[in-house]
Amino acid sequence: MDVTLVRAKEWQAVCPKCEKIAASHESDMRCPNCNSTAGLYIPVLGGGQHWQSEQAESSWHQIKCDKDCGWYSTQLDCPSCGSTIQGKFLEDLRKCFVATTCFGDSQHPIVKAFRRYRDQYIANSVYGAEFINWYYRKGPAYAELIEHRPVAKWCIRQVLKLALLFLPKELRTDR
Ligand SMILES: [Zn+2]
Ligand SMILES: [Zn+2]
């Protein structure tokens, strides 16, 4: 997947312990290396779409120097209580929730085939990127919905197995 990082316009990091806003786009963070401003950077998907601010809040990628001097951080300390606020890595954002739930394993060959399809085909079109954004908002809820419904899981497994036959051949098997 073609991913670059761009500065998020609106975001805030809320401390999980004291629930105060530890930092936001309005706070003037400084790079400890070169003293330039630093901000939250989020991944831009292939189709030119990027994560919306409400997603950025819960899935921020990294705090980075605006001047690109090489400094970045994936965590920050809460100024109120000193707790560490851990950012999520891109890898966390890339799960195939529904397929993973159905096959019970994110490394299952069929889950991996669909992940490759998403990265190489879906993510490279504007509508595809839009779909992925939608999916990352709704996916976890759908995955939870079917979590304890073995029959639903079985049905989706059969549909995915069938759909697999329509994927480009080179994506179907591990290389
Ligand atoms: Zn810097
Ligand atoms: Zn705190």
Task: Note down, in words, how this protein is organized.
With 175 residues, the chain is α+β, with helices and mostly antiparallel strands. It has two domains: 4-90, no CATH class; 95-172, no CATH class. The chain contains six helices and eight strands. The protein has helices at residues 53-58, 97-103, 109-120, 126-147, 150-164, 169-172, and strands at 4-7, 12-14, 21-24, 38-44, 62-65, 72-73, 75-77, 84-86. The strands form three sheets. Strands 1-4-5-6 form a four-stranded antiparallel sheet, with no helix packed on it. Strands 2-3 form a two-stranded antiparallel ribbon. Strands 7-8 form a two-stranded antiparallel ribbon. The chain is elongated. Bound molecules: zinc ion (2 copies). Residues 15, 17-18, 20, 78, 80-81, 83 line the site of one zinc ion.
> Can you count the beta strands?
8
The radius of gyration is 19 Å
- What is the total number of structural domains? 2
Mean pLDDT: 73
Low-confidence stretches: 50-58, 89-94
Strand order of the largest sheet: 1-4-5-6
Number of helices: 6
Overall helicity: 25-40%
Backbone structural class: alpha+beta
Order of helices and strands: EEEEHEEEEHHHHH
The main sheet comes to: 4 strands, antiparallel
Proportion in β-strands: 15-25%
End-to-end distance, in Å?
Answer: 17 Å
Give the overall shape, derived from the CA principal axes: elongated
The kinds of small molecule bound in this structure are:
zinc ion
